[in-house]
Design goal:
Blueprint lengths: L2 E4 L9 H5 L5 E3 L11 E3 L10 H5 L5 E4 L8 H5 L1
Antiparallel strand pairs: 1-4, 2-3
C-alpha cells in the first residue's frame, strides 16, 4: 500500500498539497505544531496512487512519498 510521511514540525500549513492531491488523501490536522501552524495529515491510504504531486508542491520539503512495488516473479522463482 502506498503511503506518505509528513514532517508535521516542518509543515507550515500552506495546504498546497491538499489542493494538489488528485485522490483527496491529505487533510488539515486539527492540532497545531510547535510553531502554532496547523499541519496536514495523511488519510485514505487505500486511495493514494503515490503520484508524489504533494511532495513536489511542498515548499517546506515536509512530505516523503513511498510507493509500494510488487516484486516481479522471475523464471527461477516461478519454477520453484
Amino acid at each position: 500500500m502506498n503511503t506518505i510521511i509528513i514532517d508535521t514540525e516542518r509543515c507550515k500549513g500552506c495546504y498546497l498539497c491538499i489542493e494538489a492531491c488528485p485522490k483527496n488523501c491529505i487533510e488539515q490536522n486539527g492540532r497545531p505544531n510547535a510553531s502554532g501552524n496547523y499541519p496536514v495529515q495523511f488519510v485514505l491510504a487505500s486511495e493514494c496512487i503515490a503520484c508524489a504531486l504533494c511532495a513536489l508542491v511542498c515548499p517546506d520539503v515536509a512530505i516523503t512519498v513511498f510507493r509500494h512495488v510488487k516484486e516481479a516473479k522471475t523464471a527461477d522463482t516461478a519454477m520453484a
